[in-house]
Every structure is written in structure tokens, then in C-alpha cells.
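During the reporting period, our protein records have gained a C-alpha cell line. A sample record is set out beneath this paragraph:
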Amino acid sequence: ALTAERVLNPDDAATAVTAGVAGIIVSNHGARNLDTVPATIDALPLVVEKVAGRVPVLVDGGIRRGTDIVKAPAPGASAVQIGARIYGDWGWPEPRAWPGWFRFCARNSRWRWR
């Protein structure tokens, strides 16, 4: 299955869905160093609205702490991608610790993991 990544523009998301992608990944890939690039959390609700539930919308980028993972579904993210920033900042020795964290979040959140 093919996903469209680095999508920030709602019209680009709609075009990708029409072209047959299986999902949209809202991400600026760390490009906040450019003044004109929006934050992923600001682009997310606009993309979700335009996609209108036709495919899952994931968010990647701007996830700096655990609370960001819990907040991202509020504007409509189907899932949250985390990577090196979270991994390094939390000091987990290896990714095998991640499933425990996600189980903890699932048990202690009103949001349900898919």
C-alpha cells in the first residue's frame, strides 16, 4: 500500500486520495526551520477535514514529548508516528520498551488506539 507523506496542504491530500493512496501522513519533516512552513498540528485538522474519513491520516513531526502523542488525535489523527526525537529524549535503551508505553497510554486515555 502506498501512503503520501509530507502532506501539509489539504488540496494535495485530496488529490492523493483521489489517486488511490492508502493513507496520508501529515508531516513537514522537521522543516520548521523555514519561516513559511506550517506546524504539522496546525495543518492536521485541515487535511483531516478535506480527506473526510476516506483514508487514515497519520501525523509525523512536531511530536516532542509524550503529551504530544496524546494530543494529536484530538484534531483527527488516526495514528501518531514517533521516531528518533522521542526515542532519544526519553532515554529508552531500545525500541522494545515502546509497546509498554503504548499499552500504558491506551489504558489511561479516553482515546482508543486503532
Observations:
- The mean pLDDT is 77.
- The chain has five helices and four strands.
- The helical segments are 10-19, 40-51, 66-71, 84-90, 98-107.
